[in-house]
Write the structure tokens for this entry.
Amino acid sequence: MKSFLIRIPLFRAISPTRLDALETSAELRRFRKGEILFKEGLPAESVWLIQRGWVYLVKRTPQGTPVTIFTVTPEEVLCGFSAVVGQSAYYASAVAATDTTAVRVPHADFARLLRDQPGFAEEVLAIYHTRMRHLAEAISLAQAPVEQRLAYALLRLRATFGKTVPITHHELSHMAGTRWETSIRILSAMKRKGWIISSRGKMTLLLPRKLRALLDAHPAG
Amino acid sequence: MKSFLIRIPLFRAISPTRLDALETSAELRRFRKGEILFKEGLPAESVWLIQRGWVYLVKRTPQGTPVTIFTVTPEEVLCGFSAVVGQSAYYASAVAATDTTAVRVPHADFARLLRDQPGFAEEVLAIYHTRMRHLAEAISLAQAPVEQRLAYALLRLRATFGKTVPITHHELSHMAGTRWETSIRILSAMKRKGWIISSRGKMTLLLPRKLRALLDAHPAG
DNA sequence: TTCTCACCATGACGTGCGTCATATACACCT
DNA sequence: AGGTGTATATGACGCACGTCATGGTGAGAA
């Protein structure tokens, strides 16, 4: 048993008996690219642990255009955490960015783990903290020129996918908070400079150092 | 004793003996407006609990202009949390926005609380979660027009200060990620419409509903 | 093969807002 | 009273980037 729970790194310190108990309420689910795990505004009933694949957290702006506020990878495991801390609704939607398998855990069960598995809450805190650091970075970048935001998005993608990342300009532009036309324009310029190459739905980073240099640019004052 | 620790809401569930022990290593410190609690990039050695006053978390962009990524109020208590989760450096600076009193707790002591005070980690998690929600909101707003970002900043200020908020255009513009000239221009327009009034260093929100309406604007799609 | 539908690519145009420049007013100090 | 520094206010100008428009290309379906 506990076939799928045991594979989740976050659970490695949980006792086997405990995992067995979880097994009865947890549920393994598969999503195809583009499908929705949960929706912004709906009651937060479950926590999701990403096992394979890749999930965008998307939030609507006041004018209705969706913005990708974060990308959850298998290492970053967690989403839908609103369910645990007494929030009644998810504050963002989760959309499968690739084919994804995820474990759904009812919020009560997850809360119980937090309460009585020593050390578990700290691990969750650490995850949350790195995510927060990323969000803080994203905010400070939000005012930077689009080229830098795209470079940042590409580098984060590279960190999980390697030098060739499967992504369209459309998706990339969402992550960078811009429009696909702009993304194409700027990436075309990068191609001309030999920093990257790209074809339908994939981009390959040839000179990531150049991208990183954009982000370190002016360490002024 | 434990004079200052006992006043911190986050510690209300900690046993008195434990607080006594903390007292020996914790330290109460006062900062005048503009002084720095800790600096981005420096080794993260302490967690800070805000008791009175108001702290900006500020991060530098690649081009060196500082951006306020978050504002810590006494209810939101915590900052400098990098110290606890094994991060070696603070990812942002903390600047006193008003005269502030804060408690410095060495990271080891705070980590110990997390480990062996049942329920404490969950409380911290909840704080972190609401902060995350705010950051997510800020990110989704980052692409909205400046007028909306200013409205959002004003409303958040109102939530902690009441209808009259002590802030300059300069500070406000930082929170909204824009320039003070723009802030003045847009707030002047709001004044002409009778939504707010302002004088040197303070602004009064007469019609907060109008501001909120800006943020609910187009619930499209 | 051809049809269709994403995705990729590039041009033209308008504008929100950053930037610079200049002026007035209030607070505080001596 | 006068001097200095910071906050407020407004105009002029330019550019990055959003928006709209048009066309090319590869992939999968019938």
Remarks:
- Chain B touches chain A through 56 residues (CB under 8 Å).
- The domain at 2-140 of chain B is CATH 2.60.120.10 (Jelly Rolls).
